[in-house]
Amino acid sequence: MRATGLLRPAAVSNRLAGVLGAVAMLAGCGTVGPAASRPCDLYAAPTGSDAASGTLQRPLRTPQELANRLAPGRTGCLRRGVYRSSRRTGYVVRFSAGGRRGAPVTIQSRPGERATLAGVVYVPRGSNFVTLADVDIDDPTSFTQAGQLTLQVNAADTVLRDLNITNRARKTCVVLGSPGRWGNAVRTVLRDSVLHDCGNRANGLLDHAIYVSQAVGARILDNRIVRAAGYAVHLYPDAQGTRVAGNVMADNGGGVIFAGEGGDASSGNVVEHNVIADSIQDYNVAHYWGGRVGRGNAARDNCLFNPSQLNLEAPVGYVAARNLVADPGFAAGGYEPAPGSPCASLLGP
Predict the structure, then answer these.
(1) What backbone torsions phi and psi does residue 58 show, to the nearest 5 degrees?
(2) Which tens digits make up the pLDDT trace of 277-329?
(3) Domains of the chain
(4) Is residue 315 exposed (0-12), middle (13-18) or buried (19+ Cβ within 10 Å)?
């Protein structure tokens, strides 16, 4: 059995083992950024005070206080530096409220700077229309300290873009949705980001880069997903209508898996125009059905190369069409398809 049930969000401790050497790491993973940033309404800085007004001259200190003060349509900007998780709550930021359609609550780095969130980020049920952009999430907490994830979404219309996410080979990086009262993730967008070194390889295929659990209409677009212990994208047990496109997935335990358990079966998911290469423990595209079999799943127009198993597990619960087997021609230490590789022209949204 490749897939496992998902975990509930958990608190984290305030232990920080240091800051990731992000510049060196990103040189091998692609780049993150900056996309179009929103104008800043409030500011936080590691040297600020949560009793301050939140202006550029008098910034707040924590991302949590920044999130607490943001009204719909407002943007909070983080100055350069490291923001550690709270000893009281365990989160570096937990969005207790969201925005509304056309007026999200946004937290981003100040344009021209780059902030690091050193801990767990949580978007709980009801905190809809939240955007998190242009930051590094470097979660140094262990599996036992912080549960089984680094970033969890249980709300609707969350946008995650231009992020650099890692937990230094400890646990799953991103989880969309949870069973029961915790809530589904609805219409989450995760794009233009780097996810690397997610999960402990000693756990086999149990820790993933992106775990789409109880989710509807997720969009996973134009990311670089590398060196995860488990799958780059794990669609299990109830991922509905996910689109996975334009991503490079390489050196992970497995590529993408369509999966379900009992009465739940991931259905209507499309994986297209990706490069999926060098899966270390499993197929580049796999399936697992522990009960009902999913419907309407497709893996098409992908570039597949050099898995430990086959590129495609014999299709059950998904169809495979027009997938190309070709060498992406990654440069040493890098994850961009070479211009002369047929994978380069296939890759796209």
Answers:
(1) -130, 70
(2) 999 999 999 999 999 999 999 999 999 999 999 999 999 999 999 999 999 99
(3) 139-327+342-346 (2.160.20.10)
(4) middle
Which position has the token pair 């149990």? 206
Does residue 21 have a pLDDT over 70? no
Q: What is the mean pLDDT of residues 88-99?
A: 91
CA angle, 111 then 114 then 116, to 5°: 140
DSSP state of 202: G
Asked if residue 299 lies in contact with residue 318, where contact means CB atoms within 8 angstroms, the answer is yes
Quickly state the pLDDT bin for 36 (edges 50, 70, 90): low
* Secondary structure in 3-state letters for 126-151: CCCCEEEECEEEECCCCHHHHCCCCE
Backbone region of residue 187 per phi and psi (left: phi > 0; alpha: psi in -120 to 50; beta: other values)? left
pTM confidence score: 0.90
Query: Token pair of 305, please?
Result: 């190369």
